[in-house]
Design a protein that fits this description.
This protein is α/β, with parallel strands linked by helices and 176 residues long. 52% of the residues lie in helices and 22% in strands.
């Protein structure tokens, strides 16, 4: 039963969520937000690294799933987001985690069923899929959605891979 750490990176708030992937679906482990305040930007990056390193040490996930950078209207915001992602990825790689990246559209498609879903729809579906008693804060819900996206994607890859192997063994598939 793998633990997947999902991260919704941000330069002010970084959301995190951990789910346990099992034979019968996913279960909620923990989630929350790292609030970074208004300090100097390099210090905020250090906070992301330190907090995620502590979280990884406490829960021992095997996988980090993180949202890819999207092109924002403000280039400065996009650069800061990229640096926040970098701090999170370095914390994960430093701890030996596998890192998988997903677009916002892939995450929404996997969790809500449409790549055009809004934050409220993502929060609702995360709450339903994980059987939560309350609605998580938006950044934490996004992080849980990113973790759930990984479980859906890895399950699909396994099914496709197994199907391909079965097809090869039965002789139904041919190379082109």
């Amino acid at each position: 039963m793998a633990l997947i750490l999902g991260i919704d990176p941000g330069s002010r708030i970084t959301g995190f969520g951990i789910v346990r992937e099992g034979r019968h679906g996913c279960e909620y482990v923990t989630s929350g937000c790292i609030r970074l305040g208004d300090g100097p930007f390099p210090e905020r990056l250090k906070q992301i690294f330190d907090n995620l390193s502590e979280l990884i040490g406490n829960y021992q996930p095997q996988v980090l799933s993180i949202e890819q950078v999207f092109m924002a209207r403000n280039p400065d915001s996009a650069l800061k987001l990229g640096q926040a992602r970098g701090a999170a990825i370095v914390a994960a790689v430093h701890a030996g985690l596998q890192v998988h990246e997903y677009t916002a559209r892939q995450v929404k498609q996997a969790v809500v069923g449409t790549g055009a879903a809004d934050k409220v729809q993502v929060q609702h579906m995360v709450t339903q899929l994980l059987g939560l008693s309350g609605t998580p804060q938006a950044d934490a819900a996004d992080a849980l959605a990113i973790a759930l996206c990984h479980t859906h994607s890895s399950g699909l890859k396994e099914q496709v891979g197994a199907g391909a192997l079965i097809g090869l063994r039965s002789g139904r598939m041919r190379r082109r």
